[in-house]
Structure formats: structure tokens, C-alpha cells
């Protein structure tokens, strides 16, 4: 197969691993042949985990136990096999390349050891992605696989945003990597198209059912982002703590906590789930019960408060704000969160139109700002899988000698 025929002929399965979800799409000719998503993977919520699939006449929703991403991956592969849908390559989202990779890469004997070294940087994502790569390799030994990195988008962050105030020998080793880069690159491109311009100051809010982050963008380039060396920093997330006083970590170590304990507590038992007392890690569940449960209300309020803090901080860092963008599952599908974030933000020029907000579809770009709002407010669906596919096609083309 020549390099030029890779994009024309190959069917490519793309997996997009989230901390509590697994999205998947099958592409050919840059067109989506099938898409679906495994929801509530490996988390405890008041609702069951489920898989949804859209393929031609098939539009299914199936409740199924999904204790981890390996189970979800096997279910997807079983479903595709049962439908007779084959593919010639598989792509994966990898949260953090740890500085070893400047761009995406094929998975082979040379790159796999480096990917393994990155596992601990994003335990909820990188570990799952590696396990999924192994599941695919077990079933399809010779099938090419590739990974595309979330952190690449933030590689050009200014030094002042990347640095931590540590002793210099540690500051050189530990720097902000940033995450959700695939999502930010996609919504920024869409915002440029929708607004008909690319010179503006924007804050994008990637609010997911797993991880969440904020990103400050000036004239198409990232200025700062809330996640740091690891995906723990920043906003309150479903099971991750977000910004936390390091003194708490020191105190826990003095009490006898070891690394495995801290990973469990900070990555899997904190955030909305922990602060609500284990009611749920899904903010939609907390919304449903917060009127009569003070723990659920506190978790919701802190989630919103932290988002508002970052919006204010980034507006100050850029000396202004022109566009506020909401994206990902919560950002697109929970108008109560958008309303709460925008409430009492008129000093920054943010005024939401509540009727627009409530009526907004999650499947298209929606303007949400009120007439007279100095800041344009947009809800923009993100398509990380498209970015993974596009970069993967180039990687596969580069790996095939051109026969011309």
C-alpha cells in the first residue's frame, strides 16, 4: 500500500480514553462509519454504566457493567466483530508524553518502553490506554497502533506559566505539561471558523464527566492551562482533587501514607465523589439531590467556584476577555453548570442569556451570551477523535514507503 492510499483505503478505529469514559469511532475517507461511547466506566454513581452506539440504522443504548477500561475495550471489540466491522489500524489518546515525544507515535518495540515510563504521569488515562493497547494486540497481533498526545498542544506555553517555584534542580524536572490539548485545538479551530477571526482572547472550559480543565488562549495560542505536571492540578473533577495545599500531602505522608495511598485518595476518592461523601462522582447526580443534601450542594458549589476563579485569573493574565467557551459532556449538556459559572460575572463582561442557555443543543455551536454582553459565550462540541484520526493518518503515511 502506498503512502497516498493510506488515507483513501484504511479503516481506522479510534479510542478516546477518558478517566470515566471511553469514546470510539471508526473512520474511512475521513468519514465516521460508526461512533459510540462507554459511560461511567470504573466509577460509582447513582446510575448504571452504559454503552451507546450510532451506526446506520443502529442507535442503541445498553446498560452494562463496566468496572474498567479493559472491560469496555473488549465490549467494543466484541460489538464491532459481531457487526462485521473490521479495521486496519487503531489509534489511542495518550494524556501525557512525559517530554519523550514531540508528536504522536506508532507503538512498537522502540516506543513502548517510553510510553510505559509515562504511565504514572496520568494514572487514570495513560495506564488505561496502555492496557487497551495490550488488549488490541492480543486479538490483532499484527495490527498497527498509534498514540496521539494531549500534552502536545501546550508545548509552547510561556515559561512563566510552565514553571513551578521549586529549587532549580527540581523546577527543571517538574514543569506544567497541560492536558485536554486535543479538545482545545479542536474547539479553537471551530471558534475561529464561527467567529470569522482568529485574533481574540478566549478562555475555554473543558468540563467533562471525568476530568475538567480551563485554558487561556490568545490569538490561537495557549497562554496558560489549569492542569499541570499531572492531571490533578486545577479544577475540581469527578474523583480528582484539583488545587490542594501541598502541606496536606506532607501531613498525610507523616501519617504513614505511601505513594499508592496518595494516588488512590487524590485521583480516585476525591473531587465531587469525595466531597459529596460518596453520593456520586457525576455532577448531574449531585444536581438532582443538592436541595436536600448539604454535602452534594457543597461539592457542586466548590466545583463552580473553582471554575469562576480560573476564569477571573486568566482574564487578568490576558488583560481582558473576548470569548468564553464551554465544551465536553458537562460543558455541553448541563445548562445549570453554565448558568452558575456565568452568574455574577458581569464585572468581567460575562452575561448569559438564560433562554438560549436552556435551549442550547449539545450537537452544534450555540451562542449563549445575552444582548449587550461584552464577552461572547459559546458552547462548542469537541471532537477529539477527529484530531486523533488526522494525526494518525499522517503517522501511518510516514511509515509506508511511497511506491511512486
What spatial order of strands do you see in the largest sheet?
5-4-3-2-1-6-8-7
Q: Indicate the radius of gyration in whole angstroms.
A: 21 Å
Q: What's the helical proportion of residues?
A: 25-40%
Strand content: 15-25%
Structural class computed from helices and strand pairing: alpha/beta
Q: Tell me the span between the first and last alpha carbons.
A: 11 Å
Order of helices and strands: HEEEEEHEEHHEHHHEEEHHHHHEHHHEEH
Largest sheet: 8 strands, mixed
Shape: globular
The average pLDDT is 92
Explain the layout of strands and helices.
Elements: H1 3-9, E1 12-17, E2 21-28, E3 31-39, E4 50-55, E5 58-63, H2 69-82, E6 89-94, E7 105-106, H3 112-117, H4 126-139, E8 145-149, H5 159-162, H6 168-171, H7 181-195, E9 201-207, E10 212-218, E11 221-225, H8 246-254, H9 259-268, H10 271-275, H11 283-289, H12 294-318, E12 323-327, H13 328-333, H14 335-342, H15 354-359, E13 366-367, E14 376-379, H16 384-399
Entry summary:
With 404 residues, the chain is of the alpha/beta class.
Architecture overview:
With 404 residues, the protein is of the alpha/beta class. It is 39% helix and 19% strand. It has 16 helices and 14 strands. A hairpin with a 2-residue loop joins strand 4 and strand 5. Helix 7 packs across helix 16, helix 11 crosses helix 12 and helix 12 crosses helix 14. The longest helix is centred in the C-terminal third of the chain and has 25 residues. It is globular and about 55 Å long.
